[in-house]
Structure prediction request, 867 residues.
Amino acid sequence: MTSRASRALLCALAVALPAPALADLFSPGDLARPHANLEGLSHCTDCHVAGKQLSEERCLECHKELKADVAASKGFHGKLAPDKRACETCHHDHQGRDYQMVEWPQGKKQFDHGARTGFPLRAKHAEADCEKCHDPRRITDPKVKQLLKDQPKRATFLGLPQTCQSCHFDEHRKQLPLTCEKCHDERGFKPAPKFDHAKTEYRLEGKHAKVACDKCHLKQEDGSTAADAFPAPKVAATFVKYKEIPHAACTDCHKDPHQGKFGDNCVKCHTVAGWRVLNNLEKERGFHEKTRFPLRGAHTTVDCKACHAQGRKFRGTPFERCTPCHLDAHWGTIAEAQGIKDPDCTVCHDVESFKPAKFELEQHQKTRFALEGSHKIVGCTLCHTPDPKLAAKVTDAVRKDLKKKGRLELFSAARLPIPQAETCHTCHQDVHDGQFTSGGGKREGKVALASLTGNAAGRCADCHSLDSFHQLKFDHQKDSRFPLTGKHLKVGCEKCHLADAAKVVRYKPLATDCASCHRDIHLGQLAEKKTTRCEKCHVTEDFKKVSFTHAPPFTTFLLEGKHQKLECQKCHPPVQVAPGEMSKRYKPLPRNCAGCHADAHKGAFAGLEPSASGELVKVAANKGKTRCEACHSSESWLEAKFDHSRTGFDLKGQHARAMCQQCHTTGFEKATPRQCAGCHLDVHQGQLGKRCEGCHDESNWRTKFSADAHRTGNFPLSGRHALIPCQQCHLDERDRTFSRATQDCAGCHQQDYQRTALTSMNHQAAGFSTDCRSCHQPFGFSPARFPQHDDCFQISGGPHGAIRCLDCHSTMPSLTTGATCQTGTAACTRCHTHSCDRTDGRHKSVPGYQCKDRKCYECHRFSKGGG
Prediction:
């Protein structure tokens, strides 16, 4: 079957098939069940832009639940690489109704949840089934909830929050803040590895440290949690009480065996080391109350000899400072930072306990590094990390000496005064891997960051906010050499700043030319010195909106006439520029007419140009070339600027509108006849001669044959006949010989002849001939001639020539024309008054005389000179 036949068959099928059948004929396959409502030709453009492939924007018009995440580069879809952002990369369709549009190439268990969604699965989370977390009841995103409301059978993995309480029931029943991660981790709800009782209001010491939690934190009945609560609690009926546990006095937990006889201050005698481990008796302590150093807090439990040199030295024991008794727990680092020899320990510690230190935010704000933003909530140990050099100072000798003196091992390896604390790199790792260093290199894994504006001090705060690392102060318009304009303003940072092989996001150095981010769709055709400067033609507001104009300096090929209205692809078609690469061809392109247009003259004008005389002459420089512009312009191919009048044959009327090929049937180099008969068929078959211009001109084929010209024929036109159209007499238009009229008088005037029956001059009754010309003149139907009347009585001339019939005849009965005259009803005396007495005497000698009207014109006929 030929291609033409195939197309005809397809067209026939398209006409014959109803609309659903048409969709089946051209669709690549049934849509999956979620898209079944989009089946049919009328819905194609819901997903496909006319004439193009699938559109991400069209997908997001329906899937609004994804639009915000994609724009913010969050979640699975937002974190996709640019080259994998097209929806059809993962979600195929037209594969049948039961096709699953969500694919798991390596299976759900192998899905990299951390890298792909930003929420890594660890420990217990890694063991959980996907459906357990991705339960529709856990969804909080309003757009996704609305989606499931509209499509109840829809399954989705979208819309989950990342907070603990969104998946897990609050087992503490609002007793504690919802900052679960401060105590718990993903390994399990119990135990709480991050919880430190020392950071609470009640520090566990001595025997208290070994007491089971449920001894103090008892279970309570839960009367408010519903049985069907979601997420479900581990135990619905009871919960452990953590808040408002009485602990101000020992008797809040312990029964007083003394029944209040010794008061309610148990610590006067007892210690947390054990019930039977007693403090020095008040009797022994009473003496110390009289000294300049009364014992308070933890000092009340210290053995005397620990301070008084084996119990022998009591006087002169220093007490103004802590260091005479206590080892400098910070190994001189504070003293060195403050520039003093012996710092005051009471600034941070008190006599109740060495830990926790009472150094709070208010005190920290007075240091060289006041805490601001997120720094206020950072745990102390995250910045004041253990210093191996300080930890190395706690030697066995030091421990042995402390034990000998009965002192507790109270020291800290944390470096409290932090050198260079003003710079971020002291605590924070350079996530930019040295891209912004003033020297351009790394410093032991941590670097001094340089501002993008060139600040040699290099402060992270130039770009980042202290409230959050992700809150940027960086202004791309002012702080970089690449201001963002147009569509660039809406592009997520990660689109341009990609991660390298070391998974470090690159910020500098980055190329600012378009080709560094965008594929050169012109494949180097417009490159200048191997670089394509896209900005010369394109603007950032819209790639398809170009500033290119078909004029200098862009090009020397000006678009004029019809060229201005052409679509670009008419001249710049898609071609294979490189193996496997298609692009629109922009350069090099032909600049002469023949490069784009077929030679309609088939080479007849190759090497020719019109001369001043209008003749086509050979020009050596044009050998083998057809210079279309010599005759044609870009305004219109049909309106050639060739002056035909120079050939001696001026084109007028219809000739000016005729196609050249209609006259020049065999080409343009051969002369063409100039007579009408050379091009036009003589429809008159030679009977009217060969001078067509005598009756016709170039304006149209219609004749200019006039009444004057008709005089040369055998029927000169005169009177009314000169005013009527030719077709009224020459009815047969197929007869172009005009040798005879197709109508005689009666053929046109038959009705006039018959209408006389209603008048006094009934032609048919009178026997008048249908040869109208015998009585009537072509200049006027009335008055008519009656030549037969002259034989009896002259009326064609003389004094009776202009008299109407009824002026002489009293009545007009039916007339009969014959050889004899009829007196009829003629009444001569109506005009010629006389009396019979007068006329009788005059006519005595006239034979047959009678004094009657009818007798008058028997003698007085005036037909031959007066009678």
Observations:
- The longest strand covers residues 274-278.
- Residues 1-25, 440-458 have pLDDT under 50 and may be disordered.
- The CA atoms of residues 361 and 376 lie 7 Å apart.
